[in-house]
Amino acid sequence: MRLLVVCLGNICRSPMAEGALRTRLQVSPLAGRVQVDSAGTGDWHVGEPPDRRAIACARGFGVDIAMQRARQLQARDFHDFDWLLCADRANVRDVRRRAPAGHEDKAALLLDWCGIQPGGEVPDPYTGGPEDFRQVWRLVDSAAQAVVARLAAG
Ligand code: 4NP
Asked: How far is the CA of 127 from the centre of ligand 1 (A)?
């Protein structure tokens, strides 16, 4: 199973979700059997580490995401990954727009796909403060636990 988490810039939400997912998977029966990566629909931050506020927030929850580097969604991602789990509806729309024919259904809302919030979105914390980042972490970490449960259930 290969999961790609997608947001706009790939420096806040999807790197935090990637970190939460890696950490939850490592201590699960699925350890080593699920590949996780993240990407952005935009290209503004390609090659950069996550936003320093995202790094600090994740570190506060015991997870190191500083080694991640932003990249933009690319065509081969639709072949390389089973699911493209998006932070918000605009991401889903942008991902579907770029999907090769027949691959549109691989794009889903992360919070919806894992079952914790039907139709739910992870709010963009980019223009927010530390509490907005902590709220994002709690959301994506809850999602990570639910993703593990969904995959473990087969
Ligand atoms: P992200 O947040 O999509 O969670 O990584 C953003 C990061 C950068 C920008 C927007 C959102 N930006 O416009 O540069």
From this structure: 9
